[in-house]
Amino acid sequence: MRILNVILHKIYIPHRSSNRSEKEIYDMSVPQLAGTPVIVLKEGSSRSRGRDALHANIMAAQIVAETVRSSLGPKGMDKMLVDSVGDLTITSDGRTILDEMDIQHPAAKIMVEVAKAQDDMVGDGTTTAVVIAGELLRKAENLLDQSVHPTTVIKGYRQAAETVLKVLDDIAIPIERSNEELMKTVARTSLYSKIVSGERELFAKIAVQAIKQIAEEKDGKVNVDIDHVQIQKKEGESLGETSLLNGLIIGKEAASSGTCPTCVGNVCEIGSTSKSVKDAKIALINSALEIKKTEFDAKIRISDPTKMKLFMDKEHNMLKDMVQKILDAGANVVFCQKGIDDLAQHFLDNHGVYTVRNMKEEDMEKLSRATGAKIVTRIHDIEPADLGYAGTVEERDVGDEKMTFVEGCKNPKSVCIFIRGGGEHFIDEAERALHDALCVVRNVIQDSRVVAGGGAPEVELARRLRKYADGVGGKEQLAIKSFAEALERIPITLAENAGLKPIDVIVALRKNHDEGRLWSGVNIASKKLSDMEEAQVYEPLKVVRQAIMSATEAATMILRIDDVIASSNSSMNVPPGASTGVPGTNPYM
Ligand code: ADP
Ligand code: MG
C-alpha cells in the first residue's frame, strides 16, 4: 500500500537574500519521492529555517527587552497595562510587565521565562536579566552577520558566563548576618526604583524585621520562606501607615456577637467581649462544630412528642459537650476551618469566645505558625497544650470591611505586613515592591555577600572579560568581547533613563575601572559617577549572578534554534501585520 501520499501543504521558507520565486522555494522544501510529494506536516503549518528563523527569533526577543528597558533603575518609568477585560496594572516590575503583556511569539516567551526564573529564584533583578538577554542576542546577531557560526557564539558566551561568575565571587563583599543596617541598605536599593521609594526607609525596616522574625536556623543553614510573611493591603490612609504586625490579619469578621459573660447590663467590666479578646488562648479546629450528617439520606419518623424532645436534647447536649471540651482546654478564641452550628455558636458566645468560621486552610497554617497553636481535628481530643497565644484578637473595621486582627504573638514564625495607601493600583505596586525587598533581604541572610550597584559590577565584569578574551584564541574571543559589551548595557541604560549621556558615562566608567576604582558606578541620586559602595547602594550577589545566568541561558537557547515549525493553529501563524502587543512592530516577520 502506498502510505506516502500526495501534496504536502505549502511550506513557506522566506529567503531574505535570494531572489527565488515562491514556486522554486516550494519545490525545494517539498521532498519528492518518484515525483510524489511526501506529507510531513499538517495543512496550514508553517516553517522557517536557518538564518531567517534565527533572525525572527532574535528580533522578537529584542523587542521584549526593549519594552522593559525604560523601566530599569531609580529613574525608570512605569508601564500601564490594560488586560482584555479592561483591568489596569501600573508597574515597573519586569516580571509583571511581561506577564501582563500576554506575549504570543515563542521566542519572546523565552524572555518571559527569563523574568519568571529570575523572580522565582531571587525575587529581584528581573528587568536586568531581560535587558542583558536582549543585548546578548543583539550582539550575537552582529557576529552572525560577520559569518561567525551560532555554535561559536554560544561557546564564547558560555565561557564568558563562567568567567563572570568566578569574577563575581572574587569581588563580592562579605557581610555579617547580624548587620541589620546593611540589610536595610540592600532593601533600600531594591525599593529605590519603585513607586514606594519615598517611604523606602520604612519599607526597608519592615522588610528586615519581617524576614528576621520568620528566619529559622537549622544545621547552620538559614531557612526563609517568603510565604510566611503575609501581605494584607487595603486602600485608605497613607503609605506611611504601613505596618508590621507580630501576628496576622484574617480577612474575615467574627461570627461571635460581641457579648461578654461578665458584663452587667451594657457595661463591660473586663473590657473583653467576644469581638475583642485580650490574652487570647487560641484553638484552631479543622472540623465542623456541628452534628455530623449521615452520608446517605435517612428519615427518622418520630410519632411520640416526648421522643421528639429527647431527640432534640440529645443534639443539644452533643453540641454543648463539644463546646465544653473547647472551654475546658481554656480557649477563648476559636478559628474553625468548617462551619459552626448556630447552637454551638450561641454557647460559645455565652462564654465570650471569639469565633471565626469557614477559615481558609492556608490561613489556619499561618495562624498555627504565628500563635504556636496546633490544628486540632478531633474536638474531643483538644488539650490546653494545643492552644496558641496572642496578646489580642479583635475585629476591626478597615474601610468598608471587617477584619480579624491577631496581634502580639510571642515569637511568631509567620508575620503580617499591612499595606495602606492611596488607591488600588498604588497599593498593588507597593506590594510588588515589598515582595522584591523581602526577597533581597532573604537573599543576603542566606548568602551573606553583596556587590555595590549602579552598574559598577557590570563595568568591572566587562573589563575583566575583555582581558580574559585577549587570551582566548579563535572566534570565541569575539563572542566573549560581545558578552562584555552586553553587560555594559546596564550602566548605559541606567544613565539613559536618568537623562545622562550614555557614551560619556560608559567612557568615564571604563576609565575609572581601569584605574582600579572597583565600585565606580552611576549614582542616580547625585546624577554623577561615584563609588557605589560609599554611596551605600548594595545588591545581593545572588541577584546579579542569577540575572547573568538566566540571561545567558535564554540567549544561548534562542541561538541554538535553526528551525521553527508551527502547527496551523499556533500563534506563530498569525497573519503578517497582526497585533504583537507592541505598537508598530511585528516580530513574526
Ligand atoms: P530590576 O528589576 O532588574 O531589579 P530595577 O528597576 O529594580 O530593576 O533596577 C535595578 C538597578 O538599579 C540595579 O542595577 C541597581 O544597581 C540600580 N540602582 C538602584 N538604586 C540605585 C541608585 N541609587 N543609584 C544607581 N543605581 C541604582
Ligand atoms: Mg529591583
State the share of residues found in helices, binned by percent. 40-55%
Distance between the termini: 41 Å
The bound ligands are: adenosine-5'-diphosphate, magnesium ion
* Number of E strands: 23
Computed structural class: alpha+beta
Q: Could you tell me the strand content as a percent range?
A: 15-25%
Instruction: Please outline the major beta sheet.
Output: 7 strands, mixed
Per DSSP, the total helix count is: 17
Computed CA radius of gyration, to the nearest angstrom: 31 Å
The 3D shape can be described as elongated
Show unreliable segments. Answer: 1-20, 574-589
Name the average pLDDT. 82
Can you characterise this structure?
- This protein has 589 residues and is of the alpha+beta class.
- The protein is built from 17 helices and 23 strands.
- The strands form eight sheets. Strands 11, 12, 13, 14, 15, 16 and 17 form a seven-stranded mixed β-sheet that branches.
- Helix 13 packs across helix 16.
- The longest helix is centred in the middle third of the chain and has 25 residues.
- The chain is elongated, with a radius of gyration of 31 Å.
- It starts with 21 loop residues before the first helix and ends in a 23-residue tail after the last strand.
- 44% of the residues are buried.
- The protein binds adenosine-5'-diphosphate and magnesium ion.
- Adenosine-5'-diphosphate binds next to helix 5, helix 7, helix 15 and strand 20.
